[in-house]
Design a protein that fits this description.
Helix 3 (61-73) crosses helix 4 and helix 4 runs antiparallel to helix 5 (104-111). The chain has a three-stranded mixed sheet. By secondary structure, it is α+β, with helices and mostly antiparallel strands. Helices cover 27% and strands 31% of the residues. 11% of the residues are buried.
């Protein structure tokens, strides 16, 4: 090989990126998915190369992490917190950086707001009488809220005062009817706890966050 010829750079070897104040170890093959980063990895832009052999990129390292994850694994960024919702500012920063680094698939996914479809909420409402049916277990993706109210209902009173018959006139037999005589059925007001139970389940669609 002549002195003027240069050994071509490996397309899969490791390389170090100095992104802002953080360093990232990755491969040239990974960076080749971005036209801008591929130009740096190929050595065409020597001005980015530092004395220690790393390549400097003056961007936010926290945003760059999302870029590198996509280049490595084909996973689109999902910046979602159950309490706060989507972080739109982060999405905007990632999209701007992806546009600068020339990653059209990532730019398109973010521009179309596909992350909205990745997280949905299912709501189920039902009414529970009393407290016996309020117990239960739930997983970390589910939140349940309880909205109790008191209401008054008419409860049947057995003529013989049998507790088992209370509220259930059909339980009374001939002895109860004989004790009742010609009197009308007796009812009394009874307070009942009625609770509206709202269950919200957060559902993640991982397929939307995976590159085709």
């Amino acid at each position: 090989m002549s002195d003027t010829e240069q050994t071509p750079l490996s397309t899969s070897g490791p390389m170090v990126l100095q992104v802002g104040e953080q360093r990232f170890l990755t491969s040239r093959d990974t960076l080749s998915r971005s036209d801008h980063l591929n130009a740096i990895a190929s050595g065409r832009w020597d001005s980015n190369k530092q004395a220690d052999g790393s390549y400097f990129i003056d961007v936010d390292p926290e945003i760059f992490k999302h870029i590198l994850r996509f280049l490595r694994h084909g996973v689109y960024p999902l910046c979602y917190d159950k309490a706060k919702g989507h972080n739109y500012a982060t999405y905007a920063a990632i999209q701007k950086l992806a546009d600068y680094l020339v990653i059209p698939k990532l730019v398109k996914w973010l521009n179309q707001g596909q992350y909205i479809k990745a997280v949905t909420t299912e709501t189920i409402a039902h009414i529970v009488e009393g407290v016996d049916k309020l117990d239960g277990t739930k997983d970390s993706s589910t939140e349940t809220s309880y909205h109790p109210t008191w209401r008054t209902v008419k409860k049947y009173v057995c003529p013989r005062g049998i507790a088992l018959h209370y509220g259930n006139a059909w339980r009374c037999g001939r002895d109860c009817r004989r004790a009742q005589g010609d009197a009308d059925d007796e009812y009394e007001d009874c307070p009942v706890l009625s609770t509206l139970v709202l269950t919200e389940k957060t559902v993640f669609d991982n397929n939307i966050c995976m590159e085709d």
